[in-house]
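Subject: DUF2200 domain-containing protein structure
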Amino acid sequence: MKKKDITQMSFKDLYPLYIKKAERKGHTQTEVDQIIFWLTGYDKLTLSQQLTENVDVAAFFKEAPQMNENVSLIKGVVCGVRVEDIKDPIVKDIRYLDKLIDELARGKAMEKILRQAS
């Protein structure tokens, strides 16, 4: 059986996994949402619409209102690959979000996760 491409996965199915990962480490859905809002420009209403419409991950990122201008400051390894070396823009955006959620789960301060000056 062929493995499904992550870009074709429903964001509605991926979103609870991010929340579960954060909650296992004592963080909240609100913090996950804050990261998604910062990265993509979605807000509570537009994120809810994306979840209701059951868009795939590729569409979720293609339809993002505004990817954050500081996205290039996100560096490091996710799933054994340096995010800054990923060529496919959609996969890169997915891995940026993965990296930020990983940082939250590891207890990094929100200001640092959101690449804000301390």
